[in-house]
């Protein structure tokens, strides 16, 4: 019955509801009540069933005394308590390790119950996930609570390779064939970066610039110079074709260079 509810016999009950706060509810605030019959305050009565601890519905029996007789069976309730579960969220750059944040519970009144909030969110690679949770209640009774929640998001963003240290593989000397400049490693903050290369293929002697663009957990780009060296001419590279005999005229030698 809510405040001011009238039941048969013109009996009015006042202040019959409270909110569960983890202790025993008795006939004192917030279960303070009075009884009025035909406008007359009942000063003497006895009550049983007017205490409770856990959230739920209860019944109490009020028996009249002095100038009143009979009994009244009255329903009353302890409401569930709202609690808020918060998991933290945030953003960080990829570093090869798991990104994990905790959380907190606001509103549980079972002190010493040993309840524990365990956050479940864990992300290493680029992307985003909701930071979920598991609540171990310990000795607290979950039936006494209404759970509200605010869940954070864990986000990992790509790492820029602009300042990466690039170690090239073999060097090249011109030989008429196409050369592909190999890359031994691309390291940024001790991480072995993944990338896509352009400008790393050529055939003529000269200076070149390749561009490495981060992929996967990496972003940005870094430029790297490489070269194909000129080939040095040596006597062994020239082959004279045919034999030449004096004939009194200018003769042109035929030769190949390889």
Keywords:
single chain, 258 residues, mainly beta, 4-stranded antiparallel sheet, 4-stranded mixed sheet, 0% helix, 49% strand, rod-shaped
Give an account of the 3D structure.
The protein is mainly beta and 258 residues long. Helices cover 0% and strands 49% of the residues. A hairpin with a 2-residue loop joins β4 and β5. The strands form 10 sheets. The protein has a 4-stranded antiparallel beta sheet with strand order 1-2-4-5, with no helix packed on it. It starts with a strand and ends with a strand. It has no helices and 29 strands.
Short description:
With 258 residues, the protein is mainly β.
Low-confidence stretches: 1-32
Class derived from helix and strand content: mainly beta
Q: Return Rg in Å.
A: 43 Å
Shape: rod-shaped
> In this structure, how is the largest beta sheet organized?
4 strands, antiparallel
Beta-strand portion reads: over 45%
How far the N terminus sits from the C terminus, by CA atoms, comes to 108 Å
Number of helices: 0
Percent of residues in helices comes to: under 10%
Order of helices and strands: EEEEEEEEEEEEEEEEEEEEEEEEEEEEE
* Beta strand count: 29
Strand order, largest beta sheet: 1-2-4-5
- What is the average of the pLDDT values? 84
Provide the fold topology:
Elements: E1 5-7, E2 11-13, E3 17-19, E4 35-37, E5 40-41, E6 45-48, E7 56-64, E8 71-79, E9 81-87, E10 90-93, E11 103-106, E12 116-119, E13 127-130, E14 133-136, E15 145-151, E16 153-157, E17 159-160, E18 165-168, E19 172-173, E20 179-180, E21 183-188, E22 191-192, E23 195-198, E24 201-202, E25 206-214, E26 218-219, E27 221-229, E28 238-241, E29 254-257
Parallel strand pairs: 3-8, 9-15, 10-16, 17-26, 19-27
Antiparallel strand pairs: 1-2, 2-4, 4-5, 6-7, 7-8, 9-11, 12-14, 13-16, 18-21, 20-24, 21-22, 23-25, 25-27, 28-29
